[in-house]
Amino acid sequence: MQEHNLASFRVLPVVTARDVASTVALSRALLAGGMRAIEITLRTEAALDAIAAVREEVPEMLVAAGTVTNPGELDQVVAAGVTLALSPGATDRLLAAATEAPLQFIPGVASASDVMRAMDHGMAVCKLFPATVVGGASMLKALGGPFPTMKFCPTGGLGADNFRDFLALPNVVCCGGSWMVTADLVDNGRWDDIERLAREAMS
Ligand code: PYR
């Protein structure tokens, strides 16, 4: 299993690919703003083509796949050459498949039991999702008690105003967020604003 330096990402932009061209364009803007990793979620028809295109056309960007919810989707992203996959949750089937797959997998968790199931399958990093809904920074501090070695990538409800509170926690390696790649920014081709928001998040 390949291990990524997640702390170096700082903020992992979580992208819904509307189409290939706009996803390549927003990836270039994020890269120009200092972001070197992107999570493209499997929520749209365009997602797998967008993953392939960004890998090809923006090779400096590490392309992770998000919303990987079952072993079949895991196979698809492995076939696409992806080395990091994330999920909003986890099932035992998905966790078992992930331990056999040639990539790093970050399952989603929302409770102590979810963390324990992830640990059963050897996971060292989990995505807290939806982070602000299930308790936010207080939840992460509380989980740090029984699970001192587990690291988290909180995602869901994070924005420019609060992500630094999460990053400051010792058990947070990086934060997921979409505030720099909203539908409004992407649909209107506001690449300069995306670049600026990325740069602000990385500074
Ligand atoms: C995901 O779908 O992977 C999220 O980040 C929620």
From TrEMBL:
Transmembrane segments: none annotated. The keyword Lyase applies. It catalyses: 2-dehydro-3-deoxy-6-phospho-D-gluconate = D-glyceraldehyde 3-phosphate + pyruvate. It comes from the Bacteria. GO terms for molecular function: 2-dehydro-3-deoxy-phosphogluconate aldolase activity. Pfam families: Aldolase (PF01081). Pathway: Carbohydrate acid metabolism; 2-dehydro-3-deoxy-D-gluconate degradation; D-glyceraldehyde 3-phosphate and pyruvate from 2-dehydro-3-deoxy-D-gluconate: step 2/2. Its EC number is 4.1.2.14. InterPro entries: Aldlse_KDPG_KHG, Aldolase_TIM, KDPG/KHG_AS_1. It is an enzyme of class 4 (lyase). Keywords: Carbohydrate metabolism, Lyase. Signal peptide: none annotated. Homotrimer. This is 2-dehydro-3-deoxy-phosphogluconate aldolase. The gene is eda.
